[in-house]
Design goal:
The chain is an alpha+beta fold. The chain contains 18 helices and 28 strands. The protein folds into 3 domains: 136 residues, Creatine Amidinohydrolase, Chain A, domain 1; 151 residues, Creatine Amidinohydrolase, Chain A, domain 1 (3-Layer(aba) Sandwich), CATH 3.40.350; 295 residues, Creatine Amidinohydrolase, CATH 3.90.230.10. A hairpin with a 4-residue loop joins strand 10 and strand 11. Helix 10 runs parallel beside helix 11, helix 13 packs across helix 14 and helix 15 crosses helix 17. The longest helix is centred in the middle third of the chain and has 28 residues. The protein starts with a helix and ends in a 6-residue tail after the last helix.
Length: 616
Protein backbone atom coordinates (compact mmCIF):
# COMPACT_ATOMS: atom_id res chain seq x y z
CA UNK A 1 0.00 0.00 0.00
CA UNK A 2 1.50 3.35 -1.00
CA UNK A 3 0.67 6.66 0.67
CA UNK A 4 -2.15 7.46 -1.76
CA UNK A 5 -3.91 4.12 -1.54
CA UNK A 6 -3.77 4.56 2.25
CA UNK A 7 -5.41 7.98 2.00
CA UNK A 8 -8.10 6.60 -0.29
CA UNK A 9 -8.76 3.88 2.29
CA UNK A 10 -9.40 6.61 4.88
CA UNK A 11 -11.68 8.43 2.43
CA UNK A 12 -13.71 5.26 1.90
CA UNK A 13 -14.28 4.99 5.65
CA UNK A 14 -15.68 8.53 5.65
CA UNK A 15 -17.85 7.71 2.64
CA UNK A 16 -19.40 4.73 4.42
CA UNK A 17 -20.14 6.84 7.49
CA UNK A 18 -21.93 9.41 5.33
CA UNK A 19 -23.76 6.83 3.19
CA UNK A 20 -21.93 7.91 0.04
CA UNK A 21 -21.33 5.33 -2.70
CA UNK A 22 -19.00 7.39 -4.93
CA UNK A 23 -17.09 10.55 -4.11
CA UNK A 24 -15.83 12.95 -6.79
CA UNK A 25 -12.83 15.26 -6.31
CA UNK A 26 -12.26 17.73 -9.17
CA UNK A 27 -9.35 20.06 -9.83
CA UNK A 28 -10.93 23.32 -8.72
CA UNK A 29 -11.17 25.96 -6.06
CA UNK A 30 -14.38 27.70 -4.99
CA UNK A 31 -14.25 29.79 -8.19
CA UNK A 32 -13.72 27.02 -10.79
CA UNK A 33 -10.25 28.39 -11.54
CA UNK A 34 -7.92 26.48 -13.85
CA UNK A 35 -5.04 26.78 -11.41
CA UNK A 36 -5.66 26.48 -7.69
CA UNK A 37 -3.78 27.43 -4.55
CA UNK A 38 -2.26 24.62 -2.48
CA UNK A 39 -5.23 24.67 -0.09
CA UNK A 40 -7.46 23.35 -2.88
CA UNK A 41 -5.20 20.55 -4.19
CA UNK A 42 -7.25 17.77 -2.63
CA UNK A 43 -7.26 15.64 -5.76
CA UNK A 44 -3.46 15.73 -5.71
CA UNK A 45 -3.46 14.81 -2.00
CA UNK A 46 -5.47 11.64 -2.66
CA UNK A 47 -4.03 10.61 -6.05
CA UNK A 48 -0.47 11.95 -6.32
CA UNK A 49 -1.28 13.40 -9.76
CA UNK A 50 -0.39 17.10 -9.82
CA UNK A 51 -1.43 18.13 -13.34
CA UNK A 52 -3.68 21.16 -13.78
CA UNK A 53 -6.65 19.17 -15.09
CA UNK A 54 -8.14 15.97 -13.74
CA UNK A 55 -10.96 14.54 -11.66
CA UNK A 56 -10.71 11.66 -9.20
CA UNK A 57 -13.75 9.42 -8.63
CA UNK A 58 -13.59 7.04 -5.69
CA UNK A 59 -15.96 4.16 -5.06
CA UNK A 60 -15.85 1.56 -2.29
CA UNK A 61 -13.86 -0.88 -4.42
CA UNK A 62 -12.71 1.19 -7.43
CA UNK A 63 -11.05 4.55 -8.16
CA UNK A 64 -10.43 6.30 -11.45
CA UNK A 65 -8.65 9.46 -12.58
CA UNK A 66 -9.94 11.31 -15.65
CA UNK A 67 -7.46 13.62 -17.39
CA UNK A 68 -6.79 14.83 -20.93
CA UNK A 69 -4.06 13.90 -23.39
CA UNK A 70 -1.62 16.52 -22.12
CA UNK A 71 -1.16 14.50 -18.94
CA UNK A 72 -1.49 10.81 -19.83
CA UNK A 73 2.25 10.10 -19.60
CA UNK A 74 2.63 12.10 -16.40
CA UNK A 75 -0.49 10.65 -14.77
CA UNK A 76 0.53 7.08 -15.58
CA UNK A 77 3.78 7.62 -13.69
CA UNK A 78 2.30 9.51 -10.74
CA UNK A 79 -0.64 7.19 -9.92
CA UNK A 80 1.39 3.98 -10.24
CA UNK A 81 0.84 1.76 -7.21
CA UNK A 82 -2.14 3.73 -5.91
CA UNK A 83 -4.78 1.39 -7.29
CA UNK A 84 -6.24 4.25 -9.33
CA UNK A 85 -7.18 3.52 -12.94
CA UNK A 86 -6.27 6.13 -15.56
CA UNK A 87 -9.28 7.17 -17.65
CA UNK A 88 -8.01 8.82 -20.85
CA UNK A 89 -10.51 11.55 -21.63
CA UNK A 90 -11.91 11.66 -25.18
CA UNK A 91 -10.29 8.36 -26.14
CA UNK A 92 -12.56 5.78 -27.85
CA UNK A 93 -14.27 3.57 -25.29
CA UNK A 94 -13.66 5.96 -22.38
CA UNK A 95 -16.95 7.53 -21.24
CA UNK A 96 -17.03 10.93 -19.59
CA UNK A 97 -17.67 11.05 -15.85
CA UNK A 98 -21.46 11.61 -15.94
CA UNK A 99 -21.90 8.73 -18.38
CA UNK A 100 -19.62 6.45 -16.36
CA UNK A 101 -21.52 7.21 -13.12
CA UNK A 102 -24.87 6.65 -14.81
CA UNK A 103 -23.71 3.29 -16.14
CA UNK A 104 -21.94 2.07 -13.00
CA UNK A 105 -23.94 3.39 -10.04
CA UNK A 106 -26.89 1.41 -8.75
CA UNK A 107 -30.39 2.80 -8.29
CA UNK A 108 -30.78 4.59 -4.98
CA UNK A 109 -27.05 5.17 -4.38
CA UNK A 110 -25.54 8.51 -3.34
CA UNK A 111 -22.93 10.57 -5.18
CA UNK A 112 -20.90 12.95 -3.03
CA UNK A 113 -18.72 15.95 -3.79
CA UNK A 114 -17.88 19.36 -2.35
CA UNK A 115 -20.46 21.61 -4.02
CA UNK A 116 -18.17 24.62 -3.70
CA UNK A 117 -15.66 23.04 -6.09
CA UNK A 118 -18.06 21.91 -8.84
CA UNK A 119 -19.61 24.37 -11.28
CA UNK A 120 -23.34 24.91 -11.43
CA UNK A 121 -23.39 23.55 -14.99
CA UNK A 122 -21.63 20.32 -14.02
CA UNK A 123 -23.49 19.84 -10.74
CA UNK A 124 -26.93 20.46 -12.20
CA UNK A 125 -26.11 18.23 -15.17
CA UNK A 126 -25.17 15.38 -12.85
CA UNK A 127 -28.27 15.89 -10.71
CA UNK A 128 -30.56 15.86 -13.75
CA UNK A 129 -28.90 12.82 -15.34
CA UNK A 130 -28.74 10.70 -12.18
CA UNK A 131 -32.23 11.57 -11.00
CA UNK A 132 -33.54 9.11 -13.58
CA UNK A 133 -31.80 6.36 -11.62
CA UNK A 134 -33.06 7.63 -8.25
CA UNK A 135 -29.45 8.52 -7.43
CA UNK A 136 -29.15 11.45 -5.04
CA UNK A 137 -26.37 13.98 -4.60
CA UNK A 138 -24.81 15.01 -1.31
CA UNK A 139 -22.66 18.09 -1.84
CA UNK A 140 -22.55 20.00 1.44
CA UNK A 141 -19.38 18.46 2.91
CA UNK A 142 -15.70 18.20 2.09
CA UNK A 143 -14.94 14.61 3.15
CA UNK A 144 -11.23 15.02 2.51
CA UNK A 145 -10.67 17.88 4.93
CA UNK A 146 -10.54 15.83 8.18
CA UNK A 147 -8.14 13.36 6.52
CA UNK A 148 -5.79 16.08 5.27
CA UNK A 149 -4.21 16.83 8.66
CA UNK A 150 -1.50 19.25 7.45
CA UNK A 151 -3.64 21.03 4.86
CA UNK A 152 -2.17 24.42 3.87
CA UNK A 153 -3.99 27.54 5.00
CA UNK A 154 -6.35 29.40 2.72
CA UNK A 155 -4.06 31.80 0.82
CA UNK A 156 -4.24 35.45 1.81
CA UNK A 157 -1.96 38.17 0.45
CA UNK A 158 -2.25 41.96 0.12
CA UNK A 159 -3.96 43.17 -3.05
CA UNK A 160 -2.60 45.82 -5.41
CA UNK A 161 -4.19 47.91 -8.14
CA UNK A 162 -3.66 49.03 -11.71
CA UNK A 163 -4.15 52.72 -12.34
CA UNK A 164 -6.70 53.78 -14.94
CA UNK A 165 -3.75 54.76 -17.12
CA UNK A 166 -2.32 51.23 -16.90
CA UNK A 167 -5.69 49.53 -17.37
CA UNK A 168 -6.91 51.79 -20.16
CA UNK A 169 -10.44 51.88 -18.75
CA UNK A 170 -11.77 52.85 -15.34
CA UNK A 171 -13.86 50.71 -13.04
CA UNK A 172 -16.79 53.09 -13.56
CA UNK A 173 -16.66 52.56 -17.33
CA UNK A 174 -16.34 48.80 -17.01
CA UNK A 175 -19.15 48.36 -14.47
CA UNK A 176 -21.31 50.60 -16.66
CA UNK A 177 -20.83 48.16 -19.53
CA UNK A 178 -21.72 45.28 -17.21
CA UNK A 179 -24.94 47.01 -16.16
CA UNK A 180 -25.88 47.55 -19.81
CA UNK A 181 -25.69 43.78 -20.31
CA UNK A 182 -27.69 43.20 -17.12
CA UNK A 183 -30.46 45.49 -18.42
CA UNK A 184 -30.46 43.74 -21.78
CA UNK A 185 -30.98 40.43 -19.96
CA UNK A 186 -33.66 41.74 -17.59
CA UNK A 187 -31.42 41.27 -14.54
CA UNK A 188 -31.28 43.44 -11.43
CA UNK A 189 -28.26 41.64 -9.94
CA UNK A 190 -25.10 39.97 -11.17
CA UNK A 191 -23.16 37.41 -9.13
CA UNK A 192 -19.47 37.23 -10.06
CA UNK A 193 -17.39 34.28 -8.84
CA UNK A 194 -14.70 34.19 -11.54
CA UNK A 195 -11.50 35.58 -10.06
CA UNK A 196 -9.89 37.06 -13.17
CA UNK A 197 -13.25 38.54 -14.25
CA UNK A 198 -13.59 40.39 -10.96
CA UNK A 199 -9.95 41.50 -10.96
CA UNK A 200 -10.27 42.88 -14.49
CA UNK A 201 -13.55 44.63 -13.72
CA UNK A 202 -12.26 46.38 -10.59
CA UNK A 203 -8.68 46.96 -11.85
CA UNK A 204 -7.49 45.20 -8.69
CA UNK A 205 -5.00 42.34 -8.53
CA UNK A 206 -3.86 39.83 -5.91
CA UNK A 207 -1.44 37.01 -5.21
CA UNK A 208 -3.57 34.14 -3.90
CA UNK A 209 -2.90 31.70 -6.77
CA UNK A 210 0.68 30.99 -7.75
CA UNK A 211 1.53 32.72 -11.04
CA UNK A 212 -2.01 34.12 -11.33
CA UNK A 213 -2.32 37.69 -9.98
CA UNK A 214 -5.78 37.24 -8.47
CA UNK A 215 -7.28 37.51 -4.99
CA UNK A 216 -9.84 35.06 -3.61
CA UNK A 217 -12.98 37.17 -3.96
CA UNK A 218 -16.61 37.37 -5.00
CA UNK A 219 -18.58 40.24 -6.46
CA UNK A 220 -22.23 41.23 -6.19
CA UNK A 221 -23.54 44.01 -8.42
CA UNK A 222 -26.90 45.76 -8.59
CA UNK A 223 -27.83 48.82 -10.65
CA UNK A 224 -26.58 51.16 -7.93
CA UNK A 225 -24.32 49.10 -5.67
CA UNK A 226 -21.12 47.10 -5.96
CA UNK A 227 -19.85 44.80 -3.24
CA UNK A 228 -16.69 42.71 -3.22
CA UNK A 229 -16.08 39.94 -0.70
CA UNK A 230 -12.41 39.46 0.22
CA UNK A 231 -10.40 38.35 3.22
CA UNK A 232 -9.76 41.28 5.56
CA UNK A 233 -5.98 40.92 5.43
CA UNK A 234 -6.04 41.31 1.64
CA UNK A 235 -7.24 44.92 1.91
CA UNK A 236 -4.44 47.45 2.31
CA UNK A 237 -5.08 51.07 3.18
CA UNK A 238 -4.52 52.00 -0.46
CA UNK A 239 -7.01 49.40 -1.67
CA UNK A 240 -9.56 50.62 0.88
CA UNK A 241 -9.14 54.20 -0.36
CA UNK A 242 -9.56 53.07 -3.95
CA UNK A 243 -12.73 51.15 -3.09
CA UNK A 244 -14.10 54.15 -1.18
CA UNK A 245 -13.38 56.35 -4.19
CA UNK A 246 -15.38 54.04 -6.46
CA UNK A 247 -18.05 53.38 -3.80
CA UNK A 248 -17.18 49.70 -3.72
CA UNK A 249 -18.36 48.14 -0.48
CA UNK A 250 -15.99 45.56 1.06
CA UNK A 251 -17.34 42.58 2.99
CA UNK A 252 -15.62 39.47 4.46
CA UNK A 253 -14.90 36.66 1.98
CA UNK A 254 -16.43 34.05 4.29
CA UNK A 255 -19.76 35.91 4.47
CA UNK A 256 -20.70 35.53 0.82
CA UNK A 257 -22.77 32.38 1.24
CA UNK A 258 -24.74 33.87 4.13
CA UNK A 259 -25.20 37.14 2.20
CA UNK A 260 -26.73 35.33 -0.78
CA UNK A 261 -29.01 33.32 1.47
CA UNK A 262 -30.27 36.36 3.43
CA UNK A 263 -30.40 39.01 0.69
CA UNK A 264 -33.80 40.49 -0.18
CA UNK A 265 -33.98 39.96 -3.95
CA UNK A 266 -36.18 42.53 -5.67
CA UNK A 267 -35.42 41.44 -9.21
CA UNK A 268 -33.85 38.77 -11.39
CA UNK A 269 -30.37 37.39 -10.65
CA UNK A 270 -27.87 36.81 -13.48
CA UNK A 271 -24.90 34.43 -13.13
CA UNK A 272 -22.40 32.41 -15.15
CA UNK A 273 -23.01 28.65 -14.74
CA UNK A 274 -19.36 27.84 -15.53
CA UNK A 275 -17.84 29.89 -12.71
CA UNK A 276 -20.59 29.98 -10.08
CA UNK A 277 -20.35 26.78 -8.07
CA UNK A 278 -23.21 24.33 -7.67
CA UNK A 279 -23.14 25.11 -3.95
CA UNK A 280 -23.54 28.86 -4.55
CA UNK A 281 -26.32 28.20 -7.05
CA UNK A 282 -28.25 26.22 -4.45
CA UNK A 283 -27.64 29.01 -1.93
CA UNK A 284 -29.02 31.68 -4.28
CA UNK A 285 -32.08 29.53 -4.93
CA UNK A 286 -32.60 29.16 -1.18
CA UNK A 287 -32.25 32.93 -0.75
CA UNK A 288 -34.86 33.62 -3.41
CA UNK A 289 -37.27 31.16 -1.78
CA UNK A 290 -36.70 32.84 1.60
CA UNK A 291 -37.87 36.22 0.33
CA UNK A 292 -40.71 35.13 -1.97
CA UNK A 293 -43.26 35.53 0.81
CA UNK A 294 -42.61 39.28 1.13
CA UNK A 295 -45.61 41.33 0.02
CA UNK A 296 -43.43 43.74 -1.98
CA UNK A 297 -42.70 41.02 -4.54
CA UNK A 298 -45.14 41.50 -7.40
CA UNK A 299 -43.59 38.89 -9.68
CA UNK A 300 -41.37 35.83 -9.17
CA UNK A 301 -37.63 36.37 -9.05
CA UNK A 302 -35.84 34.44 -11.79
CA UNK A 303 -32.34 33.07 -12.04
CA UNK A 304 -30.87 34.09 -15.40
CA UNK A 305 -28.14 31.80 -16.67
CA UNK A 306 -25.73 33.51 -19.09
CA UNK A 307 -22.12 33.33 -20.15
CA UNK A 308 -20.10 35.86 -18.20
CA UNK A 309 -20.32 39.23 -19.98
CA UNK A 310 -17.05 40.27 -18.33
CA UNK A 311 -15.14 37.42 -19.96
CA UNK A 312 -15.75 38.68 -23.50
CA UNK A 313 -15.10 42.28 -22.43
CA UNK A 314 -11.65 41.47 -21.07
CA UNK A 315 -10.81 39.22 -24.03
CA UNK A 316 -10.92 42.18 -26.44
CA UNK A 317 -7.98 44.29 -25.34
CA UNK A 318 -8.37 48.06 -25.35
CA UNK A 319 -5.84 50.37 -27.10
CA UNK A 320 -3.80 50.98 -23.94
CA UNK A 321 -3.62 47.25 -23.19
CA UNK A 322 -2.61 46.50 -26.79
CA UNK A 323 0.13 49.14 -26.79
CA UNK A 324 1.57 47.83 -23.53
CA UNK A 325 1.26 44.20 -24.60
CA UNK A 326 3.11 44.80 -27.88
CA UNK A 327 5.83 46.59 -25.93
CA UNK A 328 6.35 43.97 -23.22
CA UNK A 329 6.36 41.06 -25.68
CA UNK A 330 9.35 42.61 -27.45
CA UNK A 331 11.32 42.92 -24.19
CA UNK A 332 10.26 39.43 -23.18
CA UNK A 333 11.32 38.06 -26.58
CA UNK A 334 14.71 39.74 -26.19
CA UNK A 335 15.18 37.97 -22.84
CA UNK A 336 14.44 34.61 -24.50
CA UNK A 337 16.91 35.42 -27.29
CA UNK A 338 19.54 36.09 -24.62
CA UNK A 339 18.79 32.72 -23.07
CA UNK A 340 19.08 30.84 -26.36
CA UNK A 341 22.42 32.48 -27.12
CA UNK A 342 23.68 31.69 -23.62
CA UNK A 343 22.60 28.05 -23.84
CA UNK A 344 23.91 27.39 -27.34
CA UNK A 345 27.13 29.46 -27.27
CA UNK A 346 28.30 30.19 -23.72
CA UNK A 347 27.06 27.63 -21.22
CA UNK A 348 29.11 24.64 -20.09
CA UNK A 349 26.21 22.35 -20.77
CA UNK A 350 27.79 19.35 -19.07
CA UNK A 351 27.17 21.03 -15.70
CA UNK A 352 23.64 22.24 -16.41
CA UNK A 353 20.35 20.53 -15.59
CA UNK A 354 16.89 21.33 -16.89
CA UNK A 355 16.24 23.09 -13.59
CA UNK A 356 19.41 25.19 -13.92
CA UNK A 357 18.26 26.25 -17.38
CA UNK A 358 14.87 27.28 -16.01
CA UNK A 359 16.51 29.32 -13.24
CA UNK A 360 18.68 31.09 -15.84
CA UNK A 361 15.66 31.96 -17.98
CA UNK A 362 13.75 33.20 -14.93
CA UNK A 363 16.67 35.41 -13.91
CA UNK A 364 16.77 37.07 -17.34
CA UNK A 365 13.04 37.72 -17.22
CA UNK A 366 13.26 39.22 -13.74
CA UNK A 367 15.71 41.85 -15.04
CA UNK A 368 12.87 43.50 -16.99
CA UNK A 369 11.99 46.60 -14.97
CA UNK A 370 8.26 46.07 -14.32
CA UNK A 371 8.37 42.31 -13.71
CA UNK A 372 5.82 41.07 -11.14
CA UNK A 373 6.07 37.27 -11.23
CA UNK A 374 6.25 34.31 -13.59
CA UNK A 375 3.01 33.63 -15.42
CA UNK A 376 3.55 29.88 -14.80
CA UNK A 377 6.39 27.64 -13.71
CA UNK A 378 9.02 27.57 -16.45
CA UNK A 379 9.09 24.30 -18.38
CA UNK A 380 12.54 23.23 -19.56
CA UNK A 381 12.56 19.65 -20.77
CA UNK A 382 14.87 17.44 -22.76
CA UNK A 383 14.61 13.90 -24.10
CA UNK A 384 11.61 11.87 -22.88
CA UNK A 385 10.70 14.58 -20.35
CA UNK A 386 9.73 16.89 -23.20
CA UNK A 387 7.09 14.39 -24.32
CA UNK A 388 5.14 15.30 -21.16
CA UNK A 389 3.43 18.53 -22.19
CA UNK A 390 3.39 20.12 -18.76
CA UNK A 391 6.54 18.63 -17.27
CA UNK A 392 8.25 21.05 -14.87
CA UNK A 393 11.76 20.39 -13.51
CA UNK A 394 12.65 20.84 -9.86
CA UNK A 395 15.92 21.10 -7.97
CA UNK A 396 15.76 17.43 -6.95
CA UNK A 397 14.08 16.04 -10.08
CA UNK A 398 15.79 17.23 -13.23
CA UNK A 399 17.77 15.69 -16.08
CA UNK A 400 21.23 16.86 -17.09
CA UNK A 401 21.60 18.49 -20.49
CA UNK A 402 23.82 17.05 -23.19
CA UNK A 403 25.15 18.35 -26.48
CA UNK A 404 22.66 16.23 -28.35
CA UNK A 405 18.91 16.26 -28.93
CA UNK A 406 16.71 19.20 -28.10
CA UNK A 407 15.52 21.38 -25.25
CA UNK A 408 11.88 22.46 -25.07
CA UNK A 409 11.34 25.68 -23.10
CA UNK A 410 7.86 27.04 -22.31
CA UNK A 411 7.93 30.20 -20.22
CA UNK A 412 6.31 33.54 -19.50
CA UNK A 413 6.03 36.42 -17.10
CA UNK A 414 3.54 38.85 -15.66
CA UNK A 415 4.49 42.52 -15.84
CA UNK A 416 2.66 45.79 -15.28
CA UNK A 417 2.45 45.98 -19.08
CA UNK A 418 0.92 42.57 -19.63
CA UNK A 419 1.28 38.79 -19.33
CA UNK A 420 3.52 36.78 -21.65
CA UNK A 421 3.81 33.17 -22.78
CA UNK A 422 5.99 31.54 -25.43
CA UNK A 423 7.63 28.24 -26.28
CA UNK A 424 10.70 27.48 -28.34
CA UNK A 425 12.41 24.15 -28.97
CA UNK A 426 16.12 24.33 -29.74
CA UNK A 427 18.85 21.94 -30.79
CA UNK A 428 21.48 21.22 -28.14
CA UNK A 429 23.73 19.31 -30.51
CA UNK A 430 23.33 16.38 -32.87
CA UNK A 431 19.70 15.68 -33.78
CA UNK A 432 18.05 12.85 -35.70
CA UNK A 433 16.25 13.05 -39.04
CA UNK A 434 13.02 12.18 -37.20
CA UNK A 435 13.48 15.17 -34.90
CA UNK A 436 14.13 17.51 -37.83
CA UNK A 437 11.11 16.26 -39.76
CA UNK A 438 8.84 16.62 -36.72
CA UNK A 439 10.18 20.09 -35.94
CA UNK A 440 9.85 21.28 -39.54
CA UNK A 441 6.23 20.13 -39.80
CA UNK A 442 5.46 21.77 -36.46
CA UNK A 443 7.02 25.00 -37.73
CA UNK A 444 4.95 24.77 -40.91
CA UNK A 445 1.76 24.51 -38.85
CA UNK A 446 2.80 27.35 -36.56
CA UNK A 447 3.51 29.63 -39.53
CA UNK A 448 0.35 28.55 -41.34
CA UNK A 449 -1.83 29.79 -38.50
CA UNK A 450 0.27 32.91 -37.96
CA UNK A 451 -0.29 33.89 -41.60
CA UNK A 452 -4.01 33.13 -41.69
CA UNK A 453 -6.47 35.46 -43.39
CA UNK A 454 -10.07 34.75 -42.45
CA UNK A 455 -13.53 36.22 -42.55
CA UNK A 456 -14.96 37.94 -39.50
CA UNK A 457 -17.19 35.37 -37.82
CA UNK A 458 -14.63 32.57 -37.85
CA UNK A 459 -14.01 30.74 -34.60
CA UNK A 460 -10.97 28.80 -33.44
CA UNK A 461 -12.56 25.63 -34.70
CA UNK A 462 -12.46 27.05 -38.23
CA UNK A 463 -8.76 27.91 -37.91
CA UNK A 464 -7.30 24.90 -36.10
CA UNK A 465 -6.69 22.91 -39.30
CA UNK A 466 -4.12 25.48 -40.43
CA UNK A 467 -1.83 24.45 -37.56
CA UNK A 468 -2.52 20.70 -37.67
CA UNK A 469 -2.67 19.97 -41.40
CA UNK A 470 1.11 19.50 -41.94
CA UNK A 471 1.16 17.00 -39.05
CA UNK A 472 -2.14 15.32 -39.90
CA UNK A 473 -0.84 14.76 -43.43
CA UNK A 474 1.75 12.34 -42.01
CA UNK A 475 -0.54 10.79 -39.40
CA UNK A 476 0.71 12.83 -36.44
CA UNK A 477 -1.26 14.86 -33.88
CA UNK A 478 -0.95 16.57 -30.49
CA UNK A 479 -3.46 15.79 -27.73
CA UNK A 480 -4.36 19.35 -26.79
CA UNK A 481 -5.77 22.52 -28.23
CA UNK A 482 -3.72 24.72 -30.52
CA UNK A 483 -4.39 28.04 -28.86
CA UNK A 484 -5.72 29.85 -25.79
CA UNK A 485 -6.33 33.47 -24.87
CA UNK A 486 -4.00 35.35 -22.51
CA UNK A 487 -4.94 37.90 -19.87
CA UNK A 488 -3.66 41.43 -19.33
CA UNK A 489 -1.66 41.39 -16.09
CA UNK A 490 -3.85 38.37 -15.38
CA UNK A 491 -4.07 34.63 -16.01
CA UNK A 492 -1.88 33.17 -18.73
CA UNK A 493 -4.85 31.04 -19.86
CA UNK A 494 -7.95 33.05 -20.68
CA UNK A 495 -11.10 32.59 -22.74
CA UNK A 496 -13.51 32.56 -24.31
CA UNK A 497 -11.53 32.45 -27.58
CA UNK A 498 -9.55 29.33 -28.29
CA UNK A 499 -8.23 27.30 -31.20
CA UNK A 500 -9.00 23.56 -31.27
CA UNK A 501 -10.67 21.07 -33.55
CA UNK A 502 -12.78 19.09 -31.08
CA UNK A 503 -16.34 20.24 -30.55
CA UNK A 504 -17.10 21.67 -27.12
CA UNK A 505 -20.60 23.03 -26.63
CA UNK A 506 -20.58 26.80 -26.18
CA UNK A 507 -16.84 27.41 -26.29
CA UNK A 508 -16.62 26.93 -30.06
CA UNK A 509 -19.22 29.61 -30.78
CA UNK A 510 -16.91 32.51 -29.91
CA UNK A 511 -15.77 34.37 -32.98
CA UNK A 512 -12.42 36.09 -33.21
CA UNK A 513 -12.53 39.86 -32.87
CA UNK A 514 -9.81 42.48 -33.35
CA UNK A 515 -7.96 42.92 -30.06
CA UNK A 516 -8.17 39.27 -29.03
CA UNK A 517 -4.89 37.54 -28.20
CA UNK A 518 -4.31 33.84 -28.77
CA UNK A 519 -1.43 31.38 -28.64
CA UNK A 520 -0.35 29.36 -31.67
CA UNK A 521 1.33 26.21 -30.35
CA UNK A 522 1.35 23.01 -32.39
CA UNK A 523 3.73 20.25 -31.35
CA UNK A 524 4.91 16.66 -31.59
CA UNK A 525 5.24 14.45 -28.50
CA UNK A 526 6.89 11.04 -28.85
CA UNK A 527 6.58 9.10 -25.59
CA UNK A 528 9.94 7.91 -24.33
CA UNK A 529 11.84 9.85 -27.02
CA UNK A 530 11.34 13.62 -27.39
CA UNK A 531 8.88 16.50 -27.42
CA UNK A 532 8.58 19.56 -29.64
CA UNK A 533 6.41 22.65 -29.23
CA UNK A 534 6.58 26.00 -30.99
CA UNK A 535 4.40 28.68 -29.42
CA UNK A 536 4.04 32.14 -30.90
CA UNK A 537 1.53 34.59 -29.44
CA UNK A 538 -0.74 36.37 -31.91
CA UNK A 539 -3.09 39.33 -31.80
CA UNK A 540 -6.14 39.49 -34.05
CA UNK A 541 -6.23 42.63 -36.23
CA UNK A 542 -8.39 43.90 -39.11
CA UNK A 543 -7.09 43.11 -42.60
CA UNK A 544 -9.49 44.51 -45.17
CA UNK A 545 -13.09 45.00 -46.22
CA UNK A 546 -14.24 43.94 -49.67
CA UNK A 547 -17.53 43.37 -51.42
CA UNK A 548 -17.36 39.84 -50.02
CA UNK A 549 -17.12 40.93 -46.40
CA UNK A 550 -14.74 41.85 -43.59
CA UNK A 551 -11.45 39.99 -43.26
CA UNK A 552 -9.16 39.60 -40.26
CA UNK A 553 -5.62 38.32 -39.74
CA UNK A 554 -2.99 37.94 -37.01
CA UNK A 555 0.08 39.94 -36.05
CA UNK A 556 2.82 38.11 -34.13
CA UNK A 557 3.67 39.40 -30.66
CA UNK A 558 6.54 36.92 -30.14
CA UNK A 559 9.78 37.65 -31.99
CA UNK A 560 12.12 34.77 -31.21
CA UNK A 561 13.65 32.98 -34.23
CA UNK A 562 12.85 29.35 -34.92
CA UNK A 563 15.86 27.05 -34.85
CA UNK A 564 17.21 26.64 -38.39
CA UNK A 565 19.35 23.73 -37.17
CA UNK A 566 16.09 21.81 -36.81
CA UNK A 567 14.59 22.86 -40.15
CA UNK A 568 14.73 20.36 -43.03
CA UNK A 569 13.70 22.36 -46.13
CA UNK A 570 12.52 19.26 -48.01
CA UNK A 571 9.40 19.24 -45.81
CA UNK A 572 8.48 22.87 -46.55
CA UNK A 573 6.52 24.13 -49.53
CA UNK A 574 7.67 27.30 -51.29
CA UNK A 575 4.95 29.22 -49.49
CA UNK A 576 5.99 27.84 -46.09
CA UNK A 577 9.63 28.69 -46.83
CA UNK A 578 8.62 32.25 -47.67
CA UNK A 579 6.57 32.48 -44.46
CA UNK A 580 9.54 31.30 -42.39
CA UNK A 581 11.88 33.83 -44.00
CA UNK A 582 9.39 36.65 -43.55
CA UNK A 583 8.88 35.83 -39.88
CA UNK A 584 12.64 35.78 -39.37
CA UNK A 585 12.91 39.15 -41.12
CA UNK A 586 10.42 40.53 -38.58
CA UNK A 587 12.35 38.94 -35.69
CA UNK A 588 15.56 40.59 -36.88
CA UNK A 589 13.90 43.99 -37.33
CA UNK A 590 12.21 43.94 -33.91
CA UNK A 591 15.05 42.41 -31.88
CA UNK A 592 18.18 44.12 -33.22
CA UNK A 593 17.54 47.37 -31.29
CA UNK A 594 17.86 45.40 -28.03
CA UNK A 595 21.39 44.25 -28.86
CA UNK A 596 23.13 47.41 -30.04
CA UNK A 597 25.58 47.81 -27.14
CA UNK A 598 29.18 46.63 -27.45
CA UNK A 599 28.67 43.93 -24.80
CA UNK A 600 25.89 42.43 -26.93
CA UNK A 601 27.98 42.33 -30.11
CA UNK A 602 28.06 38.52 -30.18
CA UNK A 603 24.35 38.14 -29.52
CA UNK A 604 23.64 40.62 -32.32
CA UNK A 605 25.67 38.53 -34.75
CA UNK A 606 23.92 35.36 -33.57
CA UNK A 607 20.56 37.04 -34.24
CA UNK A 608 21.62 38.08 -37.73
CA UNK A 609 22.78 34.54 -38.51
CA UNK A 610 19.67 32.95 -36.95
CA UNK A 611 17.39 35.06 -39.14
CA UNK A 612 19.23 34.71 -42.48
CA UNK A 613 16.88 33.55 -45.21
CA UNK A 614 17.04 29.87 -46.13
CA UNK A 615 16.18 28.14 -49.38
CA UNK A 616 15.88 24.66 -50.75
Amino acid sequence: MNIYSGRIKELRKAMKQEGISYYMIPTADFHQSEYSADYFKEREFFSGFDGSNGTLVVGHDWAGLWTDGRYWIQATQQIKGSGIQLMKMMEPGVPDIPTWLFENMDDGEVLGFDGRCVSRREGAGLAELLAGRNITIKCNEDLGDPIWKDRPLLPCHPMFELSDEQAGESFAEKVGRLRDVMRDNGASYYVCAKLDDLMWLTNLRGNDVECNPVALSYGFFSMDKQIIFVQNDEVTEEIRKTCDKHKIEIMPYGDFDRFLKEFNYMGNVMYDPESVSYGLYLTIKAGIRNCEHLSCHTSPVKLIQAESPITIMKAVKNPVEIRNIRDIYKEDSAAVCRFIYWLTHEADISNITEYDAAVKMDSLRKEIHDFIELSFGTITATGPNAAMMHYEPSADHSSKLKREGMLLMDCGGTYYRGTTDMTRTMALGKVTDEMKKSYTLTAAGNLGLLNASFMKGCTGRNLDILAREPLWAVGSDYKCGTGHGIGYVLNVHEGPQNIRWRFSKGADAVEFLPGMIVSDEPGVYKEGKFGIRIETILICVPKCKTTDGEFLCFDPLTFVPLDKELIDPQYLSDREMAELNEYHRQCREEMLPYFESDKDRDIKQWLIDATEAISK
